[in-house]
Amino acid sequence: MAQKSSVEDLFARLAARGEDVIGRINEMPGAAKLVENANQLKERVDDLQKKVRGLDALERRVDSLEKKVDELSKASKPARKPAPKRAAAKPKPKPKS
User: Fold this and answer.
1) Residue 67 is assigned to a structural domain of this protein
2) How many domains does the chain have?
3) CA–CA distance, 4 with 70 (Å, rounded to integer)
4) CB of 25 within 8 A of CB of 35?
5) Any domain includes 64
6) Which residues of the chain have pLDDT under 70?
7) Which ranges constitute the DSSP H helices of the chain?
8) N or C: which end of the chain has fewer CB within 10 A?
């Protein structure tokens, strides 16, 4: 029990120190800018995560569309090229009498 009590006391002291440090950060020059940048970074990372999650759905859609295109291309047989038409023989002109 004594060891558990000392561990809890240690955490309580660390928490109190952390609160003190956080309170002092506001007094430091440039700290406000640092905190602002950290918050912007967090927001950007959140946006990036949302976009990356959306890519999975797009990949599934692309895969299904590719399968459909493959099926359609196999189903349609290549059209035959029409045989070249032979030039019709021109009738010979009749000799004048």
Assistant:
1) yes
2) 1
3) 66
4) yes
5) yes
6) 1-4, 77-91, 97
7) 2-25, 31-75
8) C
